[in-house]
Amino acid sequence: MRMRQRIGVIGGGQLARMMIPAAVNLGIDISVLAESENSSAALAASFVGDYRDVTTVREFARSVDVVTFDHEHVPADVLRLLREEGVVFRPGPHALAFAQDKIAMRRRLAELDVPMPRWAGVRTLEEVTNFVDENGGRAVAKTARGGYDGKGVRMITSATEVADWLDELGPGEYLLMEEWVSFRRELAQLIARRPSGEQVLWPVVETVQKNGVCAEVIAPAPSSVGRVSDMTAHIAETIAEGLEVTGVLAVELFETTDERILVNELAMRPHNSGHWTIDASTTSQFEQHVRAVLDLPLGATDMTAGFAVMVNVLGGPAGGMTSRLAQAMDRHPNAKFHVYGKEFRAGRKVGHVTVAGDDLDAVVAQARGAGMNFQD
Amino acid sequence: MRMRQRIGVIGGGQLARMMIPAAVNLGIDISVLAESENSSAALAASFVGDYRDVTTVREFARSVDVVTFDHEHVPADVLRLLREEGVVFRPGPHALAFAQDKIAMRRRLAELDVPMPRWAGVRTLEEVTNFVDENGGRAVAKTARGGYDGKGVRMITSATEVADWLDELGPGEYLLMEEWVSFRRELAQLIARRPSGEQVLWPVVETVQKNGVCAEVIAPAPSSVGRVSDMTAHIAETIAEGLEVTGVLAVELFETTDERILVNELAMRPHNSGHWTIDASTTSQFEQHVRAVLDLPLGATDMTAGFAVMVNVLGGPAGGMTSRLAQAMDRHPNAKFHVYGKEFRAGRKVGHVTVAGDDLDAVVAQARGAGMNFQD
Questions:
Q1: What sign for the dihedral angle of Cα B194, B199, B202, B205?
Q2: Residues A21 and A169 in one domain
Q3: Cβ contact (<8 Å) for A334 and B300?
Q4: pLDDT tens for residues A249-272?
């Protein structure tokens, strides 16, 4: 009889890496299907192979009790086939479909009556032009699949700016057009759900993007308690339940200049907006994800300090982060440094820093300082 | 050029296991020399072999940048030989010698003028009888080497009770006799030191033993701020510096009924009395140990709550802890559960629970409740 459960993670990125400490603490065995030998999660990589190949994924899945994900890119037909063979995926293929296809997600959110930007699925230059004209002469165009960190997103004022994407559309595929929202700030609401239906929320956070990439997260979002957090909590609960999510769900939101809350994007996995929970929440998003996919009771999500600020660290041209770490640690004894063990490429997320405390201004200053010192 | 440093840990127990999350977070590679395939630290075990065998330890040491320890049992001659060959051990053989030999430790502490119970090294029944007679008719006898968790310790009133140990003494070996201290409570002072000499302390804690095994730790020790913590800090700093410790040093202490503080035992590695730091200190003892052995700046040791209580979980006869985990999690959403992934044996430490909060009575009650529910 197996004494312990083994969780399998498809994808060897930093999200898989950060699940390792959570699993180690709980006494849960963890295995990773990584893309390469030198993945961020190499320590737990039991298989190296292509997550698009059904034979590889089948072999990996058979070595574990439950399969979860570092990313949303496993093809839907691979997931469906293996689920029919008895593999337990959490989240399941029906939920992941909404994270994989932004058009399907928008349709489902509309059915759930969740507030979001005006949107349309388009296939022609004329449809794009019409959408732009109806929305004040500008719009956001997104590929339905595969975008992340600003990739697959364009702010446009004319249909010709997405002519190439329209040319590439296959049969039955659409480009997503969205209203260019005038927002005051961006928020993210993290929620976890287990198969039994239990759901828990962390405080809503403010996220600051630079060049389409998350640069900074402030937890909780300043002045969010009450009206704002009530709305973000309701939205996240509605989506988690409506999409039957298992594990962590991140809902990226706009707080508009006219005080509405609109859903921007979804991620059905631990998310950059929740990295602060490792160091400043009773239960981190990674531990909660592990608990949820094993259908264990969810942990408390209280913050262990008044505020926490996370700053992402991006790869620089020289790749010398290791030498910077000692200096940054020396100057910032309160900062929690996280290094993903990834090859350096300019602009790639290679680590993050979190600082927690009760004085928001001081916490922001320390986190930014530690991030700057750490950054190459 | 190697981008990252690799730390090697000799011994695959729960202390090595709990270093894994710390190393993963910091982007440090970690390898373990484990005693068996199914060790607690199996995830990071790159070698399985005998830590007493110089060839095995040499091969392991050559695969890493710096070697540290899960336990103090590597033979001194193995350490000395490999150090001469250029292996970097932290702590070094000169420091470890004091953790391995209680007589050598007592002699060195006497030189450092550190307060401790009256003691003597003895080889004969007559010497034992004299020590017992001079100390009120009772004493504590300890084997100089190899004791832990109450093993190698006897409370005696007559020399015949240690006749077997005296018979087993080799040439130049002694039995340690210590005054039977009348103590109010037991304390532990954790300190970390890096090769450059930087030292940081955590708050002094109260430890509660049952049957010679640590059952519970309360951080900080109630009513310790001021006189008590000043004394324990001074003692730990004197020892860490005097013995040139690298890494974490745990100093186990008696607070006597007449309000003296006396040194009981030393451990030159992360220690059971510091497990609470994983969940309730800005820097855990495991992260600090990793930082110290790599000579990285040490992190802040502030508590993230007013109090933290850790309760050890021992193996029961049925070995069914996994099934108990879900129930314990359900009843105690604030508790942090740690499972070591070890084979179950009655009385063996197989996990621990930590609860943090600002109301000590509530924290103690929750931690004990979670420990009881969790325990088989």
A1: positive
A2: no
A3: yes
A4: 999 999 999 999 999 999 999 999
